[in-house]
Design brief:
This protein is mostly beta strands. The chain has a single domain, classed as Beta Barrel (Porin). The chain has a 16-stranded antiparallel beta barrel with strand order 1-3-4-5-6-7-8-10-11-12-13-16-17-18-19-20. The longest helix is centred in the first third of the chain and has 21 residues.
């Protein structure tokens, strides 16, 4: 009798649990519309029903964005045609590539980062960031790109002092063009790349509550790992010459920062920045491998940068009716590693000298409403002293970009943006060679008109 009672109770409890599960409100679990959701729940633990808390030894946050790009190019820019050329060299008008257009979809610019807030040390906050995208191999198929390290650094932050170590943006050239184009003007007057291993100290000196001086000094490797052995396109390609053993260089910034004009929109409107103006510079060395031995050639550069809020935010956060201007100009030598110059060395193979060049850029960012942003700008990188390139055929006299884009935020996560770019490269001492890599033909000019459309999902 006792067993029968227990059996009835077990059956009753099972039925009650089943009925209770069927009465769970619809909003207790996510609903998937498989007609419109490519990644709808196809199996338990696959896309759906897998949300779990993120845990780490210390406080950890995750972020990034999904980015789908479409690019139409009036010329063929090759396998990385969704970007402006990293070299700044647009295919010549008379080349095969210069007479063919290109249409590209890619999601490889999507990005992921992990940020850590760690324990205090001697009164400093400690933290770290690791950021990656999917541009490790431009020749890989769309479904199998390589995960690429962008930034990886740790920091100790006091109230006015920061020590940063790891891989971060080059200290030289603080301006970044706010383009949809992932290249962001690095070869056209804003040499903000590469991201390089470095040890950096930042110190803020306060003069008044609204005015301060920010000093940055660091040592960094201009070319890491295998990139140290880059060739020297400026010299005779038949000769066995190259660059090797690049020395760790020194770079710095000195910027006056003021709250007097309020804040205006920065890169992509994701930050609100104060008035700033100041100088930046770099010094290092590279060696040319010659039949007669090695010759060290200095790498150096200096420049001026400014950011000006023209129409300030009404409360320091809102972007509605805000406008800003950002600009910089620089002079550099032997700095192809960060695109500040188009070449490394000039001259003949027995006595190479540093290739010199200069660049400048400016842009306006305007937000008529909180959600609508409009950006327009111009950048130019130019060789200095054309006569010094007498032995260098097809050298870049200048590389310029004119761009304008419009972005609209549908909500806090989704953004749609469109952009137009005009790229132009002027070549000097032109030589008629086969149309390889877009450099052939007899014309000394390359021009590209580019239209882009991008969809973002920030998380």
């Amino acid at each position: 009798m006792k067993k029968k009672v227990l059996g009835v109770l077990a059956v009753g409890l099972l039925a009650a649990a089943t009925a209770s599960a069927q009465e769970v409100p619809q909003d207790a679990a996510p609903a998937y519309n498989c007609d419109f959701q490519p990644s709808c729940e196809v199996a338990p633990g696959m896309y759906g029903k897998m949300e779990q808390p993120v845990t780490s030894k210390f406080k950890l946050s995750i972020g990034g964005f999904v980015k789908l790009d479409y690019a139409y190019n009036s010329v063929n820019l090759g396998s990385s045609g969704s970007l402006a050329p990293g070299s700044g060299a647009v295919p010549k008008t008379s080349s095969y590539q210069g007479q063919a257009d290109q249409s590209i979809f890619t999601a490889r610019q999507s990005r992921l980062w992990f940020k850590v807030a760690g324990p205090a040390f001697l009164g400093a906050r400690t933290g770290a960031l690791i950021e990656a995208d999917f541009y490790g191999d431009a020749s890989a198929a769309a479904e199998s790109p390589q995960f690429r390290l962008r930034q990886a650094w740790g920091s100790l932050d006091w109230s006015r002092t920061q020590v940063l170590f790891g891989q971060a943006y080059d200290i030289f050239g603080p301006m970044v063009m706010a383009t949809i184009d992932f290249r962001q003007g690095a070869s056209f007057g804003t040499p903000n790349n590469p991201r390089v291993p470095q040890l950096r100290l930042t110190q803020r000196i306060d003069f008044t509550p609204d005015n301060s001086l920010k000093l940055v000094v660091g040592v960094q490797d201009p070319n890491q790992n295998g990139n140290n052995n880059a060739g020297v396109p400026a010299l005779n390609p038949a000769a066995n010459t190259g660059v090797f053993g690049t020395a760790v260089n020194v770079a710095g910034q000195a910027m006056w920062v003021s709250k007097a004009l309020g804040v205006g929109p920065g890169f992509w409107g994701l930050s609100m920045n104060s008035l700033s103006a100041g100088f930046f510079g770099l010094w290092g060395s590279q060696k040319a491998m010659l039949a007669t031995g090695n010759k060290s050639v200095d790498s150096w550069g200096y420049g001026f940068h400014t950011f000006v809020p023209i129409l300030k935010s009404k409360d320091g956060r809102s972007r509605e009716m805000t406008m800003s201007f950002e600009g910089q100009a620089y002079m550099a030598a032997n700095m192809q590693f960060n695109s500040a110059t188009a070449s490394t060395f000039v001259g003949n193979v027995s006595n190479p000298n540093a290739a010199k060049g200069y660049g400048f850029a400016g842009q306006l960012i305007f937000y008529p409403t909180q959600h609508l942003g409009i950006t327009a700008g111009y950048g130019r990188r130019n060789a200095y002293n054309y006569d010094s390139y007498a032995n260098n055929s097809n050298f870049q006299k200048s590389s310029t970009v004119v761009y304008a884009n419009v972005a609209y935020d549908l909500n806090a996560a989704v953004r749609i943006a469109a952009e137009y770019e005009n790229l132009n490269t002027q070549y000097g001492n032109v030589r008629d060679v086969p149309a390889t890599f877009g450099m052939g033909g007899t014309s000394g000019t390359g021009t590209a008109n580019i239209a882009r459309l991008a969809l973002f999902y920030f998380f």
